[in-house]
Every structure is written in structure tokens, then in C-alpha cells.
Inverse folding.
């Protein structure tokens, strides 16, 4: 039985990845959102809370992971971050496998993976779509977020591969620096093309 063709969606902060993922979903493509899955597992009653609390005492409560406390413990500490990732990543991989089983009949599925290139997940997908917008559009979007500062934005960019490098490695680029209907049309055209290619 042919497995679904896997689209890997990625892009730097503020490039409109979540909006584009929703557009793929609206076009009938099942979407696996790794970040949303992590939030669910770390939320109230989430299955990762016990392991995270054991590794980082005081970082969880009835509301789930206390993001600020946990962030303070792992930010800038490579060993602590690796410990957290060793808890989170296998759980996300398991959820992704279950998602694939549940959508085995779909011609296309999409994995929304923020750090697809940085964390080396590009070999797990069949094609890579990068969302991109001009740098000034990205900056305006990010700085409009609550609690975001120039310094935080700079730190995030430091950790991410540059937009130019991502575009160079992409199989397809979706431009989000244009009006939403134009971006939606790009998404629909790509979905139509990929499905047509699969039928050949």
C-alpha cells in the first residue's frame, strides 16, 4: 500500500508558517503540528509532565509545564536542553507515527516542523516547503507579538538557519509577503501539482 506523500513545512520565526499550515489543512491535507503536540503533552494532565518534573523539579504544576520556569532552566544550558529533548522528541516521534497510521489513506500529509533543517529532520519527508517573506515584514510581525523584544528576536534568529539558506534548500517556497488570497492560491496550486504528480 503506498504511504502518504509527506510534505515538510518549515520557515523562520514570523514567516507565517502556522497560517500556511492552516491553508494546507483547508485544502484537505492532514497536518501534524509538532509544536501543538508538544503543548498538548505538556499541558494539564499531559503524558510528559511526570518525566519533565522528575528531570526538572518545580517546572510543572496543575496547569502543566510552567514554561517560564522550565525555560529559565534550559535556556543557554546545552546539557539541560538535551535532557529535555530526550524526553520530548521520542514522544513526538511516536505521535507522528500514530498520525501517519491514522491518515494512511490520504495522498498527502503535512508535517509542520519549525526547525526542520536545524534539527536534521529533512530526510524524514518527501518534499520540503519553506514559507518566506521579506525581512522587514518578518521583523514587523515578530515585534508585534506580546513580550517580544529586539534582543529576543535577535537570539531566535541566531538559533535558526537564515531565510536565504532555507529557501536555497527548499523544493518549494510559499511567499507570505503578499495578500493572504495570493498565498492561499500558491498553496492550492502546490497541492494540486503534488497530487497530479502522484497520479502520473
Amino acid at each position: 500500500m503506498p504511504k502518504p506523500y509527506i510534505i515538510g513545512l518549515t520557515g523562520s520565526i514570523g514567516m507565517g508558517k502556522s497560517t500556511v499550515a492552516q491553508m494546507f489543512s483547508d485544502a484537505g491535507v492532514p497536518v501534524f503540528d509538532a509544536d501543538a503536540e508538544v503543548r498538548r503533552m505538556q499541558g494539564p494532565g499531559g503524558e510528559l509532565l511526570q518525566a519533565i518534573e522528575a528531570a526538572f523539579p518545580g517546572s510543572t504544576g496543575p496547569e502543566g509545564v510552567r514554561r517560564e520556569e522550565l525555560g529559565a532552566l534550559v535556556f543557554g544550558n546545552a546539557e539541560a536542553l538535551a535532557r529535555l529533548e530526550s524526553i520530548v522528541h521520542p514522544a513526538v516521534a511516536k505521535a507522528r507515527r500514530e498520525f501517519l497510521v491514522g491518515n494512511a489513506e490520504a495522498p498527502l500529509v503535512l508535517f509542520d516542523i519549525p526547525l526542520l533543517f536545524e534539527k536534521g529532520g529533512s530526510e524524514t519527508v518527501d518534499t520540503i516547503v519553506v514559507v518566506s517573506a521579506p525581512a522587514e515584514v518578518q521583523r514587523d510581525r515578530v515585534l508585534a507579538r506580546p513580550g517580544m523584544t529586539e534582543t529576543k528576536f535577535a537570539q531566535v534568529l541566531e538559533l535558526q538557519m537564515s531565510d536565504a539558506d532555507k529557501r536555497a534548500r527548499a523544493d518549494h517556497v510559499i511567499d507570505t509577503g503578499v495578500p493572504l488570497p495570493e498565498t492561499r492560491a500558491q498553496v492550492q496550486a502546490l497541492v494540486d501539482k503534488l497530487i497530479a504528480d502522484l497520479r502520473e
Summary: DSSP finds nine helices and seven strands in the chain.
